[in-house]
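Help needed: design a sequence for this.
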């Protein structure tokens, strides 16, 4: 147990017992405990394996390369359609965690083996994502914008493309693009 992570297990009253149980199970698999993105993250040789996090309706163990797991029980969940690699095992009460303890451990050990084998998730390239017409128009009107956008990391490019294409109304898409132009020109990501 890493003392820097302890606060996480006392801050959320609703899921406190559940996440403490998950912590015990995950640590029993020999992973190192760290704090990343404000959540307990468990690593093997400095590579992220799983993360414990809570939501309003459930708590979960997120497998960073969950898409590569066999998921023989069919219990891993893709959070949203845009999540490419990660998958969650969700729990709504401590009884579920106790009942699935051996399954959870088996999945964690498989995730460790995936990491040991050096397997990588093939992520979609930014060019495979839909580009909002409003963003394409801005490329044509703003010198250097396309070059600055292409200089961003693939993850930052994907984040912008998803952010710009989500709204149904053109006016909203245009507003989002307008708000982000300066940030892109400065080489910053959506959340930087």
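Sure. Designed sequence:
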């Amino acid at each position: 147990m890493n003392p820097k992570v302890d606060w996480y297990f006392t801050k959320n009253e609703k899921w406190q017992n559940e996440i403490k149980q998950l912590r015990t199970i995950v640590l029993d698999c020999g992973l190192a405990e760290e704090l990343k993105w404000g959540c307990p993250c468990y690593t093997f040789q400095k590579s992220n394996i799983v993360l414990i996090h809570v939501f309003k309706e459930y708590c979960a163990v997120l497998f960073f390369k969950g898409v590569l797991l066999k998921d023989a029980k069919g219990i891993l969940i893709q959070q949203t359609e845009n999540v490419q690699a990660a998958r969650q095992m969700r729990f709504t009460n401590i009884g579920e965690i106790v009942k699935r303890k051996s399954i959870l451990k088996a999945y964690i050990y498989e995730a460790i083996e995936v990491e040991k084998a050096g397997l990588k998730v093939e992520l979609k390239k930014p060019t495979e994502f839909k580009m909002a017409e409003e963003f394409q128009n801005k490329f044509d009107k703003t010198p250097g914008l396309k070059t600055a956008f292409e200089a961003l990391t693939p993850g930052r490019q994907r984040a912008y493309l998803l952010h710009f294409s989500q709204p149904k109304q053109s006016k909203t898409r245009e507003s989002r693009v307008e708000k982000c132009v300066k940030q892109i020109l400065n080489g910053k990501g959506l959340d930087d």
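The chain has eight helices and five strands.
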